[in-house]
Amino acid sequence: MKLFLMIGSLMAFLFVALGAFGAHALKPKLEATGHLETWNTGVQYHMIHSVAIIAVAILIQQLGASGLLYGAGWAFFIGILIFSGSLYVLSLTGISVLGAITPIGGLAFLAGWVMLFIAALSL
Hints:
The chain is mostly helical. It contains 5 helices and no strands.
């Protein structure tokens, strides 16, 4: 529980910092390359899944530890790293091949939501 609360809080801090950095410091560069929307998509999914990780920490505290809840938390974290991370790097570098790994992060997000759903069924 503590680990996911720490990870979720750190991820939330990073999404605020990266969102502000993109909106202010990087905006001219990202607009010039057409990657501002890509950056913002990464930040949006980063934000949603940071909150999801914190929710998993709370659920573990309230309901007790379960493999499904732990799996969901890790899937959300891996999704942030791969999905949002690849969009950030793509936005900054223009290396379009990174778009090929972005869906892997999306699959991690989906897996996390499925595990959370299955955990809810067992209540």
